[in-house]
Design a protein that fits this description.
The complex is a heterodimer of chains A (325) and B (318). Chain A is of the alpha/beta class and 325 residues long. Chain A has two domains: 182 residues, Rossmann fold (3-Layer(aba) Sandwich); 128 residues, Rossmann fold (3-Layer(aba) Sandwich), CATH 3.40.50.920. In chain A, 36% of the residues lie in helices and 18% in strands. Chain A has twelve helices and 14 strands. In chain A, the strands form three sheets. Chain A has a seven-stranded mixed beta sheet, with helices on both faces. In chain A, helix 3 runs parallel beside helix 4 and helix 8 crosses helix 12. The longest helix of chain A is centred in the first third of the chain and has 15 residues. Chain A is globular, with a radius of gyration of 20 Å. The termini of chain A are far apart. Chain B has eleven helices and nine strands. Chain B has a seven-stranded mixed beta sheet, with helices on both faces. The longest helix of chain B is centred in the first third of the chain and has 28 residues. Chain B starts with a helix and ends in a 15-residue tail after the last helix. The chains are: A alpha/beta (325), B alpha/beta (318). Chains A and B meet through helix 3, helix 4 and helix 5 of A and strand 2, strand 3, helix 5 and helix 6 of B.
Chain lengths: 325, 318
């Protein structure tokens, strides 16, 4: 085990996969000469050269499309979006090309590509730079979507994403890039589509992912002081979705809460709620509730931003609301 | 027959196959055997046939929804193409793609793309991969003049020129973006001018003469293969049919269409072949062969099985 920061774990994953497979290359804005907008790719240009670490102009649709074409003929591109917000101008490449090539070609062409970058609110970056994208992309058949919450998962899930023969979207988080955590030595690979129970408890099952795990765990510690022990499931992969551990936990607790940073309308949390009510209806003692971001574009003001995103306090209140039934 | 006649005869046969194939497709569409969209290439045949005559087996093609011509010119079988139009499992995309999505991995035909503009970036990516691997492969990308205003086209040209990608982008200017004439959608008549802003080589010529198309696209293919430099080409062409089968073509006069048919590339090729000593009997034999091939393709498509329900999700994930 070694302690790394989240961004270093991502960098290790990229470097190790580039070492083991010449088909893997990195492309995006500021990834090379500038060493990465968030320093995830620091040192990679010097190490791998300009053939494999490719700086692009501001052309998200263009370089996302170059990645799709290169993937169709067997390369394994890692396309960095400086933030997922900029993927909006590459939406066509991701949903109309990467996701559909296999189906439209009757299985003749695959698209083994990784799109990655920070997702969700950073700090006071305003409405256009603070969005969660999982609801958009998990909706699309043909795409896989992962959202690592821990440093070990950041490395392990990104390595799996690079090795996968499908388009995989890796939703990182700017607020997590500095997070420190233990990473197993060696070739640490976390399979896509396997969730993790990170805390056990008998009162409420909390299902979450990404940055929100770090709101949920402190909330659980506060509740534990009152004798309320919550189980916590970190989904890790949002598509494919593994609800096995969550359903097993709900069989014990009879109560569930989903915590998500993203907006309330539709989305991954709604999908989780639907599956729990379908697959564990008999065990439920009350409705499955959600704690979500507020239903508004992100305000710039710090106080208002804090109120818009779920906090430790809103998670505690969410658990109490579930227990009230 | 002399060598020039042999070469032209081969290209003539391909053009005739595309035309007869599409005439049969139009008939099948009106009989309800083909659904969805059907964008015909009739009138534009020399563009695909002349351009693709320059390609090697390792080269790649990316096109738009008007893709039947490039597919047949690439050597995809009339059977596989017609069966795809009929939505049959024997089709080139197993009946999952349709008219707009012809694919053939073996012949490096990468679609058939229904969202134009972005496909130029995909083509640039295929060219990027060739250069990444150090292979002297060339990628041809086809689009209509209606596609040269959208962002994907410009971003792709910007990147292809910046990175010196072995890409030839061919704008088939048929003068109508669906039913709107070029003068109402473009600030310039010559779309090859779009290359200038990217420091890219360009060319512009008519599609009347398939040998001339071959020669001019050949220069761009050689530039891509030998020096890894991209080229933007405008081929001035004309489609006789509507944008798709649902378009009655009321935006232009029948006189205009009849006038343009006088410079038909197939008629010109026939006349050139006669001048090279090819006889009416030779041409009639080819016509009969092509008609038999198309009839066989239509019969094959008719008799082929529908794809099974198990294919709905089979190709969603690898």
């Amino acid at each position: 085990m070694r302690e790394l920061r989240y961004r270093e774990a991502l960098r290790e994953a990229i470097a190790e996969e580039m070492d083991r497979d010449d088909r893997v290359f990195l492309m995006g804005e500021e990834v090379g000469y500038y060493q990465g907008a968030y320093k995830v790719t620091e040192g990679l240009l010097e190490r791998f050269g300009a053939r494999r670490v490719v700086d692009t102009p501001i052309t998200e649709e263009g370089f996302a499309g170059v990645g799709v074409g290169a993937a169709m003929v067997g390369l394994r591109p890692i396309i960095e979006f400086m933030t997922w917000n900029f993927s909006a101008v590459a939406f066509d490449q991701i949903i109309n090309h990467a996701a559909k090539i296999r189906q439209m070609s009757g299985g003749q062409f695959a698209c083994p590509i990784v799109f990655r970058g920070p997702n969700g609110a950073a700090r006071q970056t305003g409405a256009q730079h603070s969005q969660c994208w999982e609801a958009f992309y998990t909706h699309i058949p043909g795409l896989k979507v992962v959202a690592p919450a821990t440093v070990a998962d950041a490395k392990g899930l990104l390595k799996s994403a690079i090795r996968d023969d499908n388009p995989v979207l890796v939703l990182e988080d700017e607020r997590l890039y500095g997070l420190k955590g233990e990473v197993p030595d060696g070739d640490h690979v976390v399979p896509i589509g396997v969730s993790a129970q990170v805390r056990d408890g008998d009162a409420v099952t909390i299902v979450t992912w990404g940055k929100m795990l770090h709101m949920v765990l402190p909330a659980c510690e506060l509740l534990a002081k009152e004798g309320v022990e919550c189980a916590v499931i970190d989904l890790r992969s949002l598509r494919p979705l593994d609800l096995g551990p969550a359903l097993a936990s709900v069989e014990k607790t009879g109560r569930a809460l989903v915590v998500q940073e993203s907006w309330p309308y539709g989305g991954v949390g709604a999908e989780v709620v639907d599956r729990i009510q379908r697959d564990a209806f008999g065990a439920l003692k009350g409705p499955v509730l959600r704690v979500t971001g507020r239903d508004a574009s992100m305000p710039y003001n710090k106080h208002l931003e804090d109120l818009t995103i779920p906090s430790v306090d809103t998670v505690v209140r969410g658990v109490r609301a579930v227990l009230a039934w | 027959m002399a060598a020039p006649a042999d070469e032209l005869l081969g290209l003539y046969r391909q053009m005739l196959l595309i035309r007869r194939f599409e005439e049969a497709a139009a008939k099948a569409y009106s009989q309800g055997k083909i659904g969805g969209f059907l964008h015909l290439y009739i009138g534009q045949e020399a563009s695909a046939v002349g351009a693709l005559a320059n390609l090697d087996a390792g080269d790649a093609i990316v096109g738009t929804y008007r893709d039947h011509g490039i597919a047949l010119a690439r050597g995809m079988s009339a059977r596989a193409c017609m069966a795809e139009l009929y939505g049959k499992v024997t089709g080139c995309s197993k009946g999952l793609g349709g008219s707009m999505h012809f694919f053939d991995a073996e012949r490096r035909m990468l679609g058939g793309d229904g969202i134009v503009g972005g496909h130029v970036a995909v083509a640039a990516g295929v060219a990027f991969a060739s250069k990444y691997r150090g292979l002297k492969e060339v990628t041809l990308c086809f689009l209509g003049e209606g596609s040269v205003s959208i962002g994907g086209f410009h971003e792709a040209l910007s990147l292809a020129a910046l990175w010196d990608l072995p890409l030839v982008v061919i704008v088939e200017n048929n003068e109508y973006s669906m039913g709107t004439p070029l003068s109402r959608t473009l600030s310039v008549h010559d779309t090859s001018q779009k290359a200038h802003g990217y420091g890219m080589a360009s060319d512009r010529f008519k599609s009347d003469d398939v040998m001339e198309v071959k020669r001019r696209v050949g220069e761009a293919v050689a530039r891509a293969r030998e020096t890894s430099k991209p080229t933007l080409i405008e081929v001035q062409t004309y489609r006789y049919r509507g944008h798709s089968m649902s378009d009655p073509g009321k935006y232009r006069t029948s006189d205009e269409v009849e006038l343009r048919k006088k410079t038909d590339p197939i008629v010109k090729a026939e006349s050139d072949l006669r001048a090279l000593g090819v006889t009416d009997a030779d041409l009639a034999r080819i016509e009969a062969e092509v008609e038999a091939e198309v009839e066989d393709a239509s019969r094959f498509a008719d008799e082929s099985a529908e794809p099974g329900e198990e294919l709905i999700e089979a190709f969603t994930y690898a």
